[in-house]
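Forwarding these from the shared drive since the link keeps breaking.
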Amino acid sequence: MYCRNCGAAMDPSAVVCIKCGVPKGSGRNYCMNCGAQTAPEAVVCVKCGVSLGAPNNSAPTAAGGQKSKIAAGILGIFLGGLGIHNFYLGYTTKAVIQLCLTILGWILAIPTLGIGFLLSSAMSIWGLVEGILILVGNIKQDGKGIPLQ
């Protein structure tokens, strides 16, 4: 076994390289199987053929990966009043506000002879507009800053 950072031979049970101090498996300069120098973007060692894994500079993604722009837009158009699209995108605070105001509108609809439905309707229009903005590309990222796909 060899250090991926400096190419020094390592004991297989070692946690860090004793030559450079880097944790085992860190680095992209050398093959861990044969010790040959590798290109940082290489996924396979050209000398021995062992897999080197994905490059470390791949685009960051959250658990679950990128969110779908189409799914978010459709959720906004059809269930936007409930804030479902915002829950999906990770905008939890905005989603809870939309959901609570919609439910409040439903609750107030009976004692106010239907006037409470105006509040629910306003939340639905808000969701519809956000759904359209997502689909046309004006909303480009989710709540964690990851671009929509």
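-- next protein --
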Amino acid sequence: MLFGGFLVKAIIFYIVGGFILYIVIETAVRRGINHSIIGQFLEKKYGMKEDKKSFLDDDLDNENKEDY
């Protein structure tokens, strides 16, 4: 039974780690494209600005930024 508990912990660890890695990569790619010269050029040329809300936009760090 010792190895069964270890296996469950390892699976949970990999799932949580993969989710965190996904969030980091997705955020970096989105911000990198939006702030790049090509991204700004395409935004000016085609007028596409995607304000796709993420669940990370609702966290407490982003709340009340206009108040300061």
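The longest helix spans residues 2-35. The radius of gyration is 19 Å.

- D.
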